[in-house]
Amino acid sequence: MSIAQRIERIRQEIPSSVRLVAVSKQVPVSLIREAYNTGIRDFAENRLQDALLKQEQLTDLKDIAWHFIGHLQTNKAKKTIEHFQWIHSVDNLALLQRLDRLAKDLPVAPQLFLQVKILPDPNKYGWQIPELFSHLTELEACKNVKLRGLMVILPLGLTPEQSLAAFQSTTNLLEQINQQSSLALTELSMGMSNDYGLAVKAGATMIRLGQILFTE
Ligand SMILES: *Cc1c(COP(=O)(O)O)cnc(C)c1O
């Protein structure tokens, strides 16, 4: 199957309101162009240096929206918001506040997700749930960035039932945050190649697909 056929098949499975973000971290620019030609405009990378090299080769594709999905080191924060419109992996308050200051100075208005640990996972970064609720005022104070929603990566080895429940918990968490703050979050970045169907069922607004699009 070609990339075009795979994308077409996935588009038929998911509502048109769900934004399909193509995770291009392991693929060359030739395949990014192929996906672009099928209509994809959202591409995600997880390593800044690799991404910058690819972006340099794709400057003719002016309407790509770049998404950063990897762990973000504070010393790379400035470069990242200069080159990405979306950051899905804002995993702590110090980083968020730094992005907010940088956004003001540059100026840019990056759209951000808070990466949350909806289940315990020693291998993942992310906000603990109580930590989020105890910092709602600080989150509201970040006026230079656009805080858009929550992002989650589930731990490996869950059953489909457990995955669905975890995605639903993330959706509920967003509603609770909105009830207790003025943040008005609208986006849920959740679902990858192996679980996007469940994520969409639970209310995902963006799915991040790599292997299922790009690997035979
Ligand atoms: C690699 C990656 C994806 C895509 O995973 P696939 O299993 O290839 O679809 C999605 N989100 C994040 C944060 C990733 O690092």
Question: How are the SSEs ordered, and which strands pair?
Answer:
Elements: H1 3-13, E1 19-23, H2 29-37, E2 42-45, H3 48-57, E3 65-68, H4 77-83, E4 86-90, H5 93-105, E5 111-115, H6 129-134, H7 136-140, E6 146-152, H8 160-180, E7 187-190, H9 196-201, E8 206-209, H10 211-214
Parallel strand pairs: 1-2, 1-8, 2-3, 3-4, 4-5, 5-6, 6-7
Bound molecules: pyridoxal-5'-phosphate.
Order of helices and strands: HEHEHEHEHEHHEHEHEH
Report the helical percentage: 40-55%
Give the helix/strand class: alpha/beta
Determine the oligomeric state from the structure.
single chain
> Gap between N and C termini, in Å?
8 Å
CATH topology, by name, is TIM Barrel
| Strand arrangement, major sheet | 7-6-5-4-3-2-1-8
Which CATH top level class fits?
Alpha Beta
How big is the Rg?
Answer: 17 Å
Strand percentage, roughly?
15-25%
The largest sheet, given as strand count, sense and whether it forms a barrel, is: 8 strands, parallel
Domain count: 1
Contiguous uncertain segments of 5+ residues: none
Which molecules are bound in this entry?
pyridoxal-5'-phosphate
CATH architecture classification: Alpha-Beta Barrel
> How would you describe the shape?
globular
Number of helices: 10
Total beta strand runs = 8
Mean pLDDT: 97
CATH superfamily: Alanine racemase
